[in-house]
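Chapter summary example.
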Amino acid sequence: MRANIGLFWLLAGFFLLAAGVYSLWNYLVYGQLEIVGSMGIALSAILAGFIAFFLNMVKRSQAGQVFPEDADTDVDDADPEMGHFSPWSWWPFIIGLALFFVFLGLAVGIWVTIIGVPLALVALVGWTYEYYRGNFGH
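The structure predicted for these 138 residues follows.
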């Protein structure tokens, strides 16, 4: 996590520098400030700074070194409760496909969105209740 924090702070500094250079260059060449590009690069710097700050807060709340960062440990030494994941589940793929149809419909035509919205709702319900039916039911 230390490496990620350092990389995001580096990215924030780079984007901040790039925003300044971009703004100055546009002003010198065209005689006016180009707002969209300057703000886009500056907001990228702010986003990278937010992510670095968040990761730093998470690291501080963990109160010490986590196992994946320690060179003397194995992967199995980490906390077993890292979350609950379903490697066999097809529902995330179906939700992704449904959202693809929804956003494609925004670009192509509303009829594609009409196909995607019900598919997304069915996939969301299926993913939510996946552990209440079949072989994995509680």
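To summarize the output: Residues 91-128 form one domain.
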